[in-house]
C-alpha cells in the first residue's frame, strides 16, 4: 500500500491489479500494513 514501516528500502510500486493477482497467486500480504484488507482481497 506504500508507506509500510516494515518495508524499508525493499519496496517498489505495483498496480492494484498486480497486487490482487499476487494475493490470488498465494503471495502472503504484509502482516503490518495488511494491503489485502485495504485492497478488498479478502
Structure, explained:
There is one protein chain. The protein has 42 residues and is mainly alpha-helical. It has one domain. The relative contact order is 0.26. The model has no long low-confidence stretch (mean pLDDT 80). It has helices at 16-24, 35-39.
Q: Helicity level, as a percent range?
A: 25-40%
| Low-confidence blocks of residues | none
Number of helices: 2
> What is the gyration radius calculated from CA atoms?
10 Å
H-E order? HH
Count of structural domains:
1
Average pLDDT level: 80
Largest sheet, described in full? none
Number of strands: 0
Distance between the termini: 15 Å
SS content category? mainly alpha
Shape: globular
Pfam family, one: DUF6233
Protein name: DUF6233 domain-containing protein
Organism: Streptomyces sp. 900116325
InterPro entries: DUF6233 (IPR046200)
Structure keywords:
2 helices, DUF6233 domain-containing protein, 42 residues, mainly alpha, 33% helix, single chain
